[in-house]
Give the backbone structure.
Amino acid sequence: MRWTTHVCSLALAWLIALGATSGKAAPIVIDTFDVVFSTTGSLVDAGGYLGSRSISVSGGQLESDGSNLILTGATGTLWWPRVPGSDVDLLSGGNDRFELDVLSITGGFAFSHLFPDDGTPAGSVISFFDAPGTYQLRFADFLNTDFNSINQIRFSITSTGQITIGELRVVPEPGTAILLGVGLVGFVIAGPRRHRH
């Protein structure tokens, strides 16, 4: 009876923690690439974060089919919003990384250099992708960037073949509540045992 009560109490604590953690999580969608475009030069449109995006291509082609960004042998830069605006706190809700959905890829792709407000590259973060999947770039890897006060996000991109991207967003560290739950289960299993004589 006592053991059952102990397990129920721990389960309830885990559920409360899970609710509290998921309540804090506040992903910020930077771009779903839902505005159709195609460019081999420069483009300004109403897509992406805060309804404002600027694209500059120095080689190849960038386009959107209305739900995905497609890069074909492209080198360029994307800005959100197109002109620096009010400072935004990207750390709100525990966010600590960018997340990118790569749907398909031939060749390779490099996603690099977040530029903070003053236009200086934030360190030399370069992530190379060569397979579909969800990729993350941690804020901690970007030097000299104050993510709780940023007025424009700017990335340099390069693709050697063709890549299709579904969404770019800012998210919290994954699995915090799950790790807490695993810890509580371990506590129950390794909890005090009474020996009978």
